[in-house]
Amino acid sequence: MEPFVLENKEFLIIKDWVEENQGLIAGFTTRNQRWSDTPFNLGFHVAENQQDVCLNKEKLSELLEFPLSSWVGAEQTHEVFIRKVTKEDKGKGSVIYDDSLKRTDGFYTFEKDILLTLCFADCVPIYFFESKSQCLGIAHAGWKGSVNGIAEEMVASLANEGVKPDELMVVIGPSICEKCYIVDDRVIKLVQNRLEAVEKKPYNLIQENQYCLNLQELNKQILIKNGVLEEHIAVTQLCTSCHRDLFFSHRRDKGKTGRMMGFIGWKEVF
């Protein structure tokens, strides 16, 4: 079943998580906004005008009813560093990119009134939730982060906190699909090194030195290999490249494009 539902013009939500857990908000923005025909870009690092991004973030903050002062953003350097977020980090990267958590592509928290936010435009957003501890996390997995094991690093980091892999719930969000994502032998060799022997290959040869790579399936296989139950992993069918009406796509738009935002957090419930 598709985990994401379009809540309004600006974002989708992970419907089951949000409806079944009071105060939980988790979702993914679109490229659209109700106030203007201007694309709803949320990435500071690709914006010509930083103030436009700040304005868009303020609009999203109002829609989510989650103040910007509680948002946390990351530098996102296509590495595999995972960070634990606490109240001391609130506000970092929310209105100034240079204030983002450095060398961070995934983070998690056990605290409420914190919104974890990462930007995407083809890379895979991976959402993590464990109900007993109320732990939340999100990771940014492009091909580099995927083959270097950011999903594995997140599972290991949470295990060190006492969160068991087989109790984790995971949603793999909108990203570029295998039909739209062609890579060469160099990338596939790294995929093979990461997965070793698996029955279901996340790639298909289409011609010499060209493969369709399914980044979502790659990360799913890595998660299963590291103890997450397959029945606890939901994968969206939404492709950022195919759905031109909904999403930015770095590859489709030849690098000149905006960014969507993946977000997850607990609101304070009174």
UniProtKB/TrEMBL annotation:
The keyword Hydrolase appears for this protein = yes
Q: SUPFAM superfamilies given for it? A: CNF1/YfiH-like putative cysteine hydrolases
Gene3D superfamilies reported in the protein's UniProt record: CNF1/YfiH-like putative cysteine hydrolases
Q: Which cofactor does it need?
A: Zn(2+)
List the catalytic activities from the record.
Answer: S-methyl-5'-thioadenosine + phosphate = 5-(methylsulfanyl)-alpha-D-ribose 1-phosphate + adenine; adenosine + H2O + H(+) = inosine + NH4(+); inosine + phosphate = alpha-D-ribose 1-phosphate + hypoxanthine; adenosine + phosphate = alpha-D-ribose 1-phosphate + adenine
Would the keyword ATP-binding be found if you checked this record's keyword annotation?
no
Species of the source: Bacillus methanolicus (strain MGA3 / ATCC 53907)
Its recorded name reads: Purine nucleoside phosphorylase
Q: Name one GO molecular function term.
A: S-methyl-5-thioadenosine phosphorylase activity
Q: Which UniProt keywords apply?
A: Hydrolase, Metal-binding, Transferase, Zinc
Q: Which family does it belong to?
A: Belongs to the purine nucleoside phosphorylase YfiH/LACC1 family.
The record's PANTHER family line, in alphabetical order, gives:
PURINE NUCLEOSIDE PHOSPHORYLASE LACC1, UNCHARACTERIZED PROTEIN YFIH
What Pfam families has UniProt attached to this entry?
Cu-oxidase_4
| Functional summary from the UniProt entry | Purine nucleoside enzyme that catalyzes the phosphorolysis of adenosine and inosine nucleosides, yielding D-ribose 1-phosphate and the respective free bases, adenine and hypoxanthine. Also catalyzes the phosphorolysis of S-methyl-5'-thioadenosine into adenine and S-methyl-5-thio-alpha-D-ribose 1-phosphate. Also has adenosine deaminase activity.
Q: Which domain of life is it from?
A: Bacteria
> Which gene underlies this protein?
ylmD
